[in-house]
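Design job #97: recover the sequence.
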Protein backbone atom coordinates (compact mmCIF):
# COMPACT_ATOMS: atom_id res chain seq x y z
CA UNK A 1 0.00 0.00 0.00
CA UNK A 2 1.23 3.47 -0.87
CA UNK A 3 0.68 5.32 2.41
CA UNK A 4 1.28 8.64 0.65
CA UNK A 5 -2.26 8.25 -0.72
CA UNK A 6 -3.55 8.88 2.81
CA UNK A 7 -1.90 12.30 2.84
CA UNK A 8 -4.47 13.50 0.29
CA UNK A 9 -7.33 13.19 2.78
CA UNK A 10 -8.28 16.64 4.05
CA UNK A 11 -7.96 17.36 7.79
CA UNK A 12 -8.05 20.31 10.11
CA UNK A 13 -5.94 20.68 13.25
CA UNK A 14 -7.59 21.15 16.61
CA UNK A 15 -6.87 21.23 20.33
CA UNK A 16 -9.11 18.56 21.87
CA UNK A 17 -9.51 18.99 25.62
CA UNK A 18 -11.27 17.47 28.60
CA UNK A 19 -11.31 17.54 32.38
CA UNK A 20 -10.91 15.09 35.24
CA UNK A 21 -11.58 16.36 38.74
CA UNK A 22 -9.63 19.59 39.12
CA UNK A 23 -7.25 18.78 36.24
CA UNK A 24 -7.34 19.74 32.57
CA UNK A 25 -5.58 18.18 29.63
CA UNK A 26 -5.60 18.26 25.85
CA UNK A 27 -3.85 17.24 22.66
CA UNK A 28 -3.51 18.23 19.01
CA UNK A 29 -5.98 16.18 16.99
CA UNK A 30 -6.99 16.02 13.34
CA UNK A 31 -9.82 13.49 13.51
CA UNK A 32 -12.75 15.78 14.32
CA UNK A 33 -15.88 15.73 12.19
CA UNK A 34 -19.58 16.55 12.26
CA UNK A 35 -21.98 13.62 11.96
CA UNK A 36 -25.44 15.20 12.19
CA UNK A 37 -26.90 18.70 12.30
CA UNK A 38 -30.26 18.19 14.07
CA UNK A 39 -29.25 17.61 16.77
CA UNK A 40 -25.66 18.68 16.17
CA UNK A 41 -23.33 15.79 16.88
CA UNK A 42 -19.57 15.53 16.49
CA UNK A 43 -17.08 12.69 16.62
CA UNK A 44 -13.40 12.65 17.55
CA UNK A 45 -10.69 9.99 17.32
CA UNK A 46 -8.42 9.59 20.35
CA UNK A 47 -5.48 7.22 20.86
CA UNK A 48 -5.94 4.94 23.86
CA UNK A 49 -2.36 5.86 24.80
CA UNK A 50 -3.24 9.54 24.97
CA UNK A 51 -3.54 10.92 28.51
CA UNK A 52 -6.64 12.89 27.51
CA UNK A 53 -8.39 9.60 26.67
CA UNK A 54 -8.92 8.80 30.35
CA UNK A 55 -10.11 12.37 30.99
CA UNK A 56 -12.85 11.99 28.36
CA UNK A 57 -13.83 8.56 29.63
CA UNK A 58 -14.22 9.87 33.19
CA UNK A 59 -15.91 13.21 32.49
CA UNK A 60 -17.88 12.00 29.44
CA UNK A 61 -17.28 15.39 27.87
CA UNK A 62 -14.82 17.04 25.52
CA UNK A 63 -14.18 20.41 23.88
CA UNK A 64 -12.59 21.34 20.57
CA UNK A 65 -10.74 24.57 19.77
CA UNK A 66 -10.23 25.09 16.02
CA UNK A 67 -6.73 26.45 15.37
CA UNK A 68 -5.99 29.09 12.76
CA UNK A 69 -2.87 29.62 10.63
CA UNK A 70 -1.51 32.30 12.98
CA UNK A 71 -1.36 29.93 15.94
CA UNK A 72 1.71 30.34 18.13
CA UNK A 73 4.03 27.35 17.63
CA UNK A 74 4.18 27.08 21.43
CA UNK A 75 0.62 25.75 21.30
CA UNK A 76 1.66 23.02 18.86
CA UNK A 77 4.75 22.21 20.91
CA UNK A 78 2.78 21.97 24.13
CA UNK A 79 -0.30 20.08 23.00
CA UNK A 80 1.28 18.05 20.21
CA UNK A 81 4.62 16.88 21.58
CA UNK A 82 4.46 17.02 25.37
CA UNK A 83 2.48 14.96 27.86
CA UNK A 84 0.14 16.20 30.53
CA UNK A 85 1.49 13.48 32.80
CA UNK A 86 4.65 15.55 33.18
CA UNK A 87 3.56 19.18 32.74
CA UNK A 88 0.52 21.41 33.12
CA UNK A 89 -0.21 22.17 29.47
CA UNK A 90 -2.37 25.14 30.42
CA UNK A 91 0.17 26.91 32.61
CA UNK A 92 1.28 29.28 29.83
CA UNK A 93 -1.86 29.14 27.66
CA UNK A 94 -4.78 31.59 27.70
CA UNK A 95 -7.90 29.48 28.34
CA UNK A 96 -11.30 29.42 30.01
CA UNK A 97 -13.53 26.74 31.49
CA UNK A 98 -16.51 25.76 29.36
CA UNK A 99 -20.02 24.66 30.28
CA UNK A 100 -18.94 21.03 30.57
CA UNK A 101 -15.88 21.91 32.63
CA UNK A 102 -13.59 21.20 29.69
CA UNK A 103 -11.03 23.94 28.94
CA UNK A 104 -11.31 26.13 25.83
CA UNK A 105 -8.34 27.83 24.17
CA UNK A 106 -8.88 31.60 23.88
CA UNK A 107 -6.21 32.71 21.39
CA UNK A 108 -5.31 31.91 17.75
CA UNK A 109 -8.51 29.97 17.11
CA UNK A 110 -11.50 30.34 14.80
CA UNK A 111 -14.18 28.72 16.94
CA UNK A 112 -14.84 26.39 19.85
CA UNK A 113 -17.49 23.88 20.75
CA UNK A 114 -18.22 21.47 23.58
CA UNK A 115 -19.82 18.04 23.57
CA UNK A 116 -21.26 15.54 26.00
CA UNK A 117 -20.35 11.98 25.04
CA UNK A 118 -23.34 9.90 23.97
CA UNK A 119 -21.49 6.91 22.53
CA UNK A 120 -18.00 5.51 22.12
CA UNK A 121 -16.56 2.86 19.81
CA UNK A 122 -13.25 1.20 20.65
CA UNK A 123 -10.77 0.00 18.04
CA UNK A 124 -7.31 -1.52 18.47
CA UNK A 125 -5.42 1.72 19.03
CA UNK A 126 -8.08 4.44 19.07
CA UNK A 127 -11.53 5.25 20.40
CA UNK A 128 -14.14 7.24 18.52
CA UNK A 129 -16.12 9.39 20.94
CA UNK A 130 -19.46 10.67 19.61
CA UNK A 131 -20.76 13.75 21.37
CA UNK A 132 -23.84 15.94 21.29
CA UNK A 133 -22.87 19.60 20.91
CA UNK A 134 -23.97 21.63 23.95
CA UNK A 135 -22.25 24.92 23.13
CA UNK A 136 -20.37 26.62 20.30
CA UNK A 137 -18.79 30.00 19.69
CA UNK A 138 -17.15 31.74 16.72
CA UNK A 139 -14.01 33.56 17.90
CA UNK A 140 -12.32 34.82 14.72
CA UNK A 141 -13.35 33.90 11.20
CA UNK A 142 -11.00 36.30 9.40
CA UNK A 143 -7.91 34.08 9.55
CA UNK A 144 -7.91 30.75 7.63
CA UNK A 145 -8.14 27.60 9.69
CA UNK A 146 -4.98 25.56 10.17
CA UNK A 147 -5.24 22.49 7.99
CA UNK A 148 -3.09 19.41 8.13
CA UNK A 149 -1.91 20.16 4.57
CA UNK A 150 -0.74 23.65 5.64
CA UNK A 151 0.94 22.13 8.68
CA UNK A 152 2.82 19.57 6.57
CA UNK A 153 3.73 21.70 3.56
CA UNK A 154 4.23 25.15 5.08
CA UNK A 155 5.16 24.51 8.71
CA UNK A 156 7.01 21.30 7.64
CA UNK A 157 5.61 19.22 10.46
CA UNK A 158 4.18 15.73 10.67
CA UNK A 159 1.60 14.02 12.84
CA UNK A 160 2.45 13.16 16.48
CA UNK A 161 2.92 9.43 17.06
CA UNK A 162 -0.52 8.99 18.67
CA UNK A 163 -2.33 10.54 15.71
CA UNK A 164 -4.16 8.16 13.33
CA UNK A 165 -2.36 9.79 10.39
CA UNK A 166 1.14 9.15 11.79
CA UNK A 167 3.46 6.93 9.75
CA UNK A 168 7.19 6.39 10.05
CA UNK A 169 9.09 8.55 7.61
CA UNK A 170 6.00 10.51 6.63
CA UNK A 171 7.79 13.84 6.25
CA UNK A 172 7.52 15.03 2.63
CA UNK A 173 10.59 15.60 0.50
CA UNK A 174 11.15 19.12 -0.80
CA UNK A 175 10.41 19.63 -4.52
CA UNK A 176 14.03 20.51 -5.30
CA UNK A 177 15.24 17.28 -3.69
CA UNK A 178 17.93 19.13 -1.76
CA UNK A 179 19.15 17.47 1.44
CA UNK A 180 17.08 18.49 4.45
CA UNK A 181 17.60 18.05 8.17
CA UNK A 182 14.51 16.62 9.81
CA UNK A 183 13.57 16.75 13.49
CA UNK A 184 13.36 13.23 14.88
CA UNK A 185 10.65 14.30 17.33
CA UNK A 186 8.10 16.26 15.30
CA UNK A 187 9.23 15.87 11.68
CA UNK A 188 9.97 19.56 11.07
CA UNK A 189 12.25 20.03 8.03
CA UNK A 190 15.00 22.61 8.27
CA UNK A 191 15.50 24.01 4.78
CA UNK A 192 18.75 26.02 4.45
CA UNK A 193 17.33 27.90 1.46
CA UNK A 194 14.60 29.26 3.74
CA UNK A 195 16.36 29.38 7.12
CA UNK A 196 14.32 30.22 10.20
CA UNK A 197 13.75 33.97 9.91
CA UNK A 198 11.16 33.97 12.69
CA UNK A 199 13.97 33.07 15.09
CA UNK A 200 16.70 35.21 13.54
CA UNK A 201 18.17 32.65 11.12
CA UNK A 202 18.41 34.15 7.61
CA UNK A 203 17.85 32.24 4.39
CA UNK A 204 21.01 30.54 3.14
CA UNK A 205 22.16 29.43 6.61
CA UNK A 206 23.43 25.86 6.52
CA UNK A 207 22.28 23.52 9.27
CA UNK A 208 25.87 23.14 10.45
CA UNK A 209 26.07 26.92 10.92
CA UNK A 210 23.00 27.20 13.11
CA UNK A 211 23.73 28.45 16.66
CA UNK A 212 24.39 25.66 19.16
CA UNK A 213 21.36 26.69 21.18
CA UNK A 214 18.99 26.77 18.17
CA UNK A 215 15.81 24.77 18.79
CA UNK A 216 13.26 23.19 16.48
CA UNK A 217 10.62 25.86 15.76
CA UNK A 218 7.80 23.35 16.10
CA UNK A 219 8.58 21.20 19.14
CA UNK A 220 11.55 22.92 20.79
CA UNK A 221 13.95 19.98 20.42
CA UNK A 222 17.73 20.63 20.10
CA UNK A 223 19.84 20.22 16.96
CA UNK A 224 21.10 16.88 18.18
CA UNK A 225 17.79 15.15 17.36
CA UNK A 226 17.88 16.22 13.69
CA UNK A 227 18.80 13.70 10.99
CA UNK A 228 19.96 14.34 7.42
CA UNK A 229 17.33 13.32 4.86
CA UNK A 230 17.33 13.41 1.10
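Job complete. Output follows.
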Amino acid sequence: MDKAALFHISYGLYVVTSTKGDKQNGFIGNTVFQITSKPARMAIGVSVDNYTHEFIEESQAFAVSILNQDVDTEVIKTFGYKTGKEIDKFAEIEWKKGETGAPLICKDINATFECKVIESVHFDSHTIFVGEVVSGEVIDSNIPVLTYEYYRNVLKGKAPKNAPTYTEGSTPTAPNNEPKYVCGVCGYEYDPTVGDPEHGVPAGTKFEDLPADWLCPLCGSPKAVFDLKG
